[in-house]
Specification:
The chain is mainly α. Helix 1 packs across helix 2. It is globular, with a radius of gyration of 14 Å.
């Protein structure tokens, strides 16, 4: 029984992460907040808005952090330096840009 709930939980989180990344990628392309396609879907609407807001505030969303910090960066100091640089310049690595283009 618990395995079923774990599967459902993973599915919901994956959906929210996708929506967050879509919002972040949309904001990166200068889309207005009103471009949120999840007008009637509460969780995904909030996740998209969160991703969009992260771009505005210079914060990397958790979904992007989860994808790259553990898998792509051996040194957490390098990841934190990249986060700090993003906050100031809004520059992302080429690898991240390619990754985010999938969510447009």
């Amino acid at each position: 029984m618990c395995q079923g709930y774990e599967g459902e939980k993973k599915y919901i989180i994956a959906g929210e992460n996708r929506a967050s990344l879509r919002g972040f990628a949309s904001a990166m392309e200068s889309a207005p907040k009103s471009a949120n396609p999840y007008t009637y879907d509460g969780y995904n609407k909030e996740a998209w808005d969160h991703g969009w807001g992260c771009w505005q505030e210079g914060i990397l969303p958790y979904a992007l952090d989860a994808e790259f910090s553990k898998k792509k960066y051996d040194n957490l100091n390098a990841w934190w330096a990249m986060e700090k640089r993003f906050k100031i310049t809004r520059e992302l690595s080429e690898e991240m840009l390619v990754f985010l283009k999938k969510y447009l």
